[in-house]
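ingest -> validate -> predict -> emit
validate: passed (alphabet ok, no gaps, 393 aa)
predict: started
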Amino acid sequence: MSDLAIAATLSALVLLASVISVEIGIASAIIELLFGVIAGSVFHIHGAAWLTFIASFGGILLTFLAGTEVDIKLMKQQYKQSITIGTLSFLVPFVLIFWCVYGGLHWTLAASKIAGIALSTTSLAVVYAILIETGMASKQLGKAIMAATFVTDFLTATALSVLFAQFNVYTVLFIIASLLIIFFGPRFIKFFFRRYGNRVIEPETKLIFAIFFLLMFLSDIGKQQAILPVFILGLLLSGFFESHLRFNHKLRTIGYAIITPFFFIKGGLNVSLAAVWGSLGTVLLLLVIKLGGKFLGVYPVAALSMPKRGRAFFTLLMSTGLTFGTISSTFGLQYHYITHQQFSVLIAVVIISAVAPTFIAQRFFSPLSEEAEERLVAVGEEGHELPQGAHNA
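emit:
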């Protein structure tokens, strides 16, 4: 199939994924991954050079946007709880998954590390979307979930960078450039925005993209990963993005409309339905261990300061995985740390873990439902007449 035919087909799938996402209320990234699976397994569409390039850039852009979602003020207010829950949320599933695939399934050491990282993440994109949709983003519980999610994702990015670090003569150059961008980049970007921003030609957006490409190039020749410095840069610019909503909106529009959908589509193209079906037992085993590890790590700590429904809601959202799970799995496949079959298994678990805990949390453990019930009880105790059928609502 020609490049234009692939582009036309995948663009149509991206559009259809957006329409379905709006209609049924599921994150478009999940549908894009599923459409990628269908396009690869049913229509036998496979990656082109341009698609690989855009997908790589999309992974970096997603990492940056995830960092900009963090509320630094909230992190400072709840740093003890956030660090404790976020660390356990990553560490417990990582250890359990690694032990299972390395000792039980006899995966290689590198593949086991990829599996541990990919299935220990929490999807900041899914969590943020749910909190916005339910109106909980501004509530204390919602802010606590966001803060803990950041810690988990930060540890994910760090683990991927450290556990697979390689060194050559260009590694020092990448480290120096990363440190310079982290320490001086935010100040320069703010100056650049004041001087050249708010123009039709979008110089500020071009600057952000130029920084990404520079880090990607240096990380490639230095045998490193750009996701950690990019994630930190996004974190440091989170306050700037919060106060410049127009620029924030423009960058997200470019990313979510054009670039990041191809990252998820490309990930789905590498999934083999035959491999998933043949390894269905492994998929279910890893899913149970991932969710069980999250509950072991998160629920006991959440129980110390939250009501029952709130702690279950908290734990279920922390069990979701999508963006960093896909990024980690794609990295493992790209550098041949995992096989296509192992990649298919990991992506299957990632997709299920993005959907199932979200549905259960919203359907059965929504704190907003608990608040509504408490208000009804309070009104009833005051002797006011409750609306007909209110007790059954």
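The chain has one domain: 3-164+225-376.
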